[in-house]
């Protein structure tokens, strides 16, 4: 357990404060109540380390701490107040004394509380955990939703009648086996079906992904993706009765679903020589990523609701059940799913992108089409992502401009590219002679603390920017 000076130096240069590392200067003292809360929050997030005597902003440095001068006594106090053991260690760093708190992971199926609150960290803030997240934690000891039976007592014939087994092999770009037992063996290994005393049971995972008709599985028909097309910018009237529900499983029907959504989008036609060219309001790849993300990150334990795609004249809204685990501001640079095996299966089937790249792709396509930034709206039990139609820069609201710059800066940062006046001009199509306009946009985002200068002392022409959390 002993922490070395070398280990502390490695922690100092880590990319950011993560779910397993927290730094506090605590030069003279630190409030015990706040310490107790941080220990609870870090334990709830998987355990990790809290360091006193280190600055929490880049470039981090050891400044030394006089707090917690009795590590063994503090360890006893922590156990008394929290009910779990936290080891406390003194490290004599050349630049000053560092106190390291080694915080364990919470037990499976359990969340720790302090003064009645189940705590977690959102950015640099300590916050109560959402009801959605607590339900996931408390359900850890039980069978996952995807492994529960969607239909029992199925024969071999029932399995291939109810599930689109052919589509699985097409998505995997593999030949369809010549013998049915091989198909069933592969579906069993993927947890789509499971043997039982009376044949097979089709799991929720198998039905959700490959059902030929979700209505054949009790309780799953409401999880089918619903697409509604409205007239105008409100929900007052459905356009031509276009309110459809895709009855196929997510994997079996995904490509057809995306084609249908894309075909309902506002479009314009241009005649080039003898050919007509149709231009759609939104990039198809961005829609594919957002619908895939909504399917992957939905709360499968929510009943009576599913993913909904709503198409208006001026925007596209994609809603999924559940509140995100990650802060909305961190969608571009981080990725965490509440349904890890479900997500991994959909990634293997190429329904959604690899971990941490989906929203990156969305922002890339938004910028290529010079669309307004995407917007995320959180309800009490649902998450909605909004894509808006093209607007000129002067038509964007101040919030849209700042959010566009923030998303641009995040995208550049995760791709090891710099954000500066030139990149902002490119993002908004601003002419070089109007570079002062790009500078004002950057300054507005800095004032709102969405981005910050990498080196505040740099000359204007050399000024580079990073997201506020970088």
Structure commentary:
The protein is an alpha+beta fold and 470 residues long. It folds into 4 domains: 5-129, 2-Layer Sandwich (Methyltransferase, Cobalt-precorrin-4 Transmethylase, Domain 2); 145-214, no CATH class; 226-388, Heat Shock Protein 90 (2-Layer Sandwich), CATH 3.30.565; 395-467, Arc Repressor Mutant, subunit A (Orthogonal Bundle), CATH 1.10.10. The protein contains 15 helices and 20 strands.
CATH topology name of the largest domain, in short, is: Heat Shock Protein 90
**Fraction of residues in H or I helices:** 25-40%
How many helices in DSSP terms? 15
Order the strands across the largest sheet as they lie in space: 12-11-15-16-18-17
Distance between the termini: 29 Å
* Main β-sheet description: 6 strands, mixed
What is the multimeric organization of the chains shown?
single chain
Q: How many domains?
A: 4
Low-pLDDT stretches are: none
Query: Would you report the number of β strands?
Result: 20
- Write down the overall geometry: globular
Mean pLDDT: 90
Structural class: alpha+beta
CATH class of the largest domain: Alpha Beta
Strand coverage percent = 15-25%
């Amino acid at each position: 357990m002993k922490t070395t000076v070398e280990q502390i130096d490695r922690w100092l240069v880590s990319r950011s404060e993560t779910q397993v590392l927290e730094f506090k200067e605590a030069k003279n003292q630190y409030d015990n109540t706040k310490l107790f809360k941080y220990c609870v929050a870090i334990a709830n997030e998987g355990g990790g380390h809290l360091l006193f005597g280190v600055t929490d902003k880049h470039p981090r440095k050891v400044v030394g701490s006089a707090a917690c001068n009795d590590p063994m006594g503090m360890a006893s106090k922590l156990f008394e107040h929290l009910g779990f053991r936290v080891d406390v260690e003194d490290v004599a760093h050349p630049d000053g004394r560092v106190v390291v708190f080694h915080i364990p992971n919470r037990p499976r199926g359990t969340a720790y509380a302090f003064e009645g609150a189940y705590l977690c960290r959102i950015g640099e803030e300590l916050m109560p955990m959402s009801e959605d997240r607590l339900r996931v934690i408390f359900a850890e000891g039980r069978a996952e939703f995807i492994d529960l039976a969607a239909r029992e007592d199925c024969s071999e014939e029932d399995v291939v009648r109810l599930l689109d087994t052919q589509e699985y092999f097409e998505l995997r770009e593999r030949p369809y086996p010549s013998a049915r037992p091989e198909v069933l063996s592969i579906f069993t290994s993927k947890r789509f079906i499971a043997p039982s005393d009376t044949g097979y049971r089709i799991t929720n995972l198998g039905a959700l992904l490959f059902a030929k008709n979700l209505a054949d599985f009790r309780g799953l028909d409401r999880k089918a993706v619903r697409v509604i097309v409205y007239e105008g910018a409100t929900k007052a009237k459905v356009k031509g009765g276009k309110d459809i529900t895709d009855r196929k499983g997510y994997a079996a029907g995904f490509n057809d679903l995306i084609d249908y959504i894309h075909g309902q989008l506002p479009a314009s036609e241009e005649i080039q020589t003898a050919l007509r060219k149709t231009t759609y309001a939104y990039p198809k790849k961005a829609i594919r990523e957002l619908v895939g993300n909504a399917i992957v990150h939905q709360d499968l334990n929510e009943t009576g609701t599913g993913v909904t795609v709503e198409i208006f004249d001026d925007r596209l809204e994609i809603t999924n059940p559940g509140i995100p685990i990650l802060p909305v501001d961190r969608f571009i640079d981080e990725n965490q799913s509440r349904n890890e095996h479900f997500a991994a299966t959909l990634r293997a089937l190429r329904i959604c992108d690899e971990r941490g790249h989906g929203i990156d792709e969305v922002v890339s396509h938004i910028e290529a089409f010079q669309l307004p930034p995407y917007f995320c709206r959180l309800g009490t039990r649902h998450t909605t992502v909004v894509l808006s139609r093209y607007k000129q820069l002067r038509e964007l609201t101040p919030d849209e401009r700042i959010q566009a710059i923030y998303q641009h800066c995040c995208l550049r940062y995760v791709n090891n590219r710099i954000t500066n006046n030139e990149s902002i001009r490119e993002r908004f199509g601003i002419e070089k002679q109007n570079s002062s306009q790009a500078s004002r946009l950057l300054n507005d985002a800095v004032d709102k603390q969405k981005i910050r200068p990498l080196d505040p002392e740099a000359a204007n022409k050399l000024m580079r920017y990073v997201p506020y959390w970088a």
